[in-house]
Amino acid sequence: MSTPTHITSAAQLRSILSAHNVVVADFYADWCGPCKAIAPAYEQFSKSLSKPGKVAFVKVNTDDQQDIARKYEITAMPTFLIFKESREVKRIRGADARALKEAIDTVIAGAGSAGSGASFGTKGHTLGPAPTAPKYVSGGRIVGDVPLTAQLNGFMNTAMRFVGLYVVSLFSLDAYAAAEASSYNVNNRDGQRARPAAGR
């Protein structure tokens, strides 16, 4: 019936969530190849399944709406969130149109059934603590969400050590000894040559 609504503010998203029983949100980025690949299927789902006041489809550009992406802990794109009565009930990561369609159909079917809250006067309560977002600790203090640079730091260190060890061992006559003595060796943190084991 309609194309997805492009979200321009958190208030707009809240308004759509409160006005519809089911809302499907596509968290995407303009530079994301898989996001572009699944966009036609998502638009088709929106056209065929949207119903005013019941089912809505929205698109959230994670570069333009970083606060919304952070609130819903979006770490990969595309990520699809399906909300029922303003609460997230399904999360699909990646450009899997079949899994997305199955999840949408399941939630829409459940929204129309008697077991979806029509038998009870309240929404109920969740047992246990609410999930918390991971926090970044610096100098013994929690300073907020984990920045991307901190997430990539471990990967970059590992990649640099691998490349360093590869280059050192590639251009030496005794590759094992060169790798053992290399400053890139994680077992040789003080930079001194490791002693060979007995019998070598």
What can you see in these coordinates?
This protein is α/β, with parallel strands linked by helices and 200 residues long. Helix 5 (148-170) runs antiparallel to helix 6. Strand 6 and strand 7 form a beta hairpin. The strands form two sheets. Strands 1-3-2-4-5 form a five-stranded mixed beta sheet, with helices on both faces. A two-stranded antiparallel sheet has the order 6-7. It has six helices and seven strands; from the N terminus they run E-H-E-H-E-H-E-E-H-E-E-H-H. It is 39% helix and 19% strand. It has helices at 10-19, 33-49, 66-71, 97-111, 148-170, 175-181, and strands at 5-6, 22-28, 55-61, 79-84, 87-93, 135-138, 141-145. It is elongated.
Give the termini separation: 75 Å
Total beta-strand segments: 7
The chain-level mean pLDDT equals 78
Shape: elongated
- Helix vs. strand class: alpha/beta
Order of helices and strands: EHEHEHEEHEEHH
Residue windows where pLDDT falls under 50 for at least 5 positions = 113-122
Radius of gyration: 25 Å
Number of helical elements: 6
The amount of helix comes to 25-40%
Q: Which strands sit side by side, in order, in the main sheet?
A: 1-3-2-4-5
Proportion of residues in extended strands: 15-25%
Largest sheet: 5 strands, mixed
